[in-house]
Amino acid sequence: MRILFAALFVFACAGASIAQAVDPALLAPGDDVLFVDEIVITERDGGAFKVTADLYRPAGGEKLPGIVIAHGGGFVAGSKDAFGIPEVSRYFARNGFVVLAVDYRLLQHGGLFPKNAQDVKCAIQWLRANADAYGVDTARIAIQGNSAGGYMASFAAVTQTSEEFNASCGSPGLDAQPPAVDLVVAWYGVHDFTTMTHNLVKAMTISYFQGIKDIPAFKKHISPITYAQNAPPMLLLHGTADQLVPFDQSVRMCEAVNAAGGDCTLIKYPGVDHGFIGEHLGTDNADNALHVTAKWLRERFAAMSAPGAPEAGK
Asked: What ranges make up the beta strands (E) of 113-228?
């Protein structure tokens, strides 16, 4: 059952030049987290696919940091409604963040590289374009993802200023906004396709390489580690016994970012396999990961707000 709340927000349609003063059908899922579901970010392929997202935020009118969340699923499965994404999103909302969880195109829906990453970037642009409507501080925006979503988060962050990997979101209001993030968090994500050898991963991503003549060069081209020098501050969480995405993926990415003069923190979970957070909420490792992530985000955003801190979104 939906409970409608009158809220002190102005809903800004991303494609409109004038915001409309309407109640955005906020739903409270059993607590003080406000929820707006099935927001249409943009339409792709002539309207055949709608990039949609769900928004979560605490009650209240103050401006808060924003987080865009990209789900996992090996590029062929998953959604903003699965793999614990709603629970993770509510956790972050309860801890003082405005969360936008996005569904991007999967491979079977035409989500070949870089289209899927461009969908995620459009979610960042939507959050920026609608920041006033939902109380988002555009000087404090992060992106987070797990597994394949960790790749999306990592790639979007390190290529945020790249014209090659950015594309129109189909709306002047969105296109006027940069796909810029200030922080990035990836849980057991893929950062370097050139070293991925797991048969399941190769099977799930084989569509990425259809029609590509120089596959090694293409794998390097689509790997976040190739652009590590562009990374904003980054937090990586990974289990050392990950059987799907090797722990070394996060080790090497963090080393590359730090070697390039960036700022990367790696938290390792000894003996832990893949997917230990989203589908295992309530376990010690999952609870710790959520706490560590929220704490890191709060501390980094606070440092960004300090006098003399670098300008955000750069």
From this structure: 136-146, 183-187
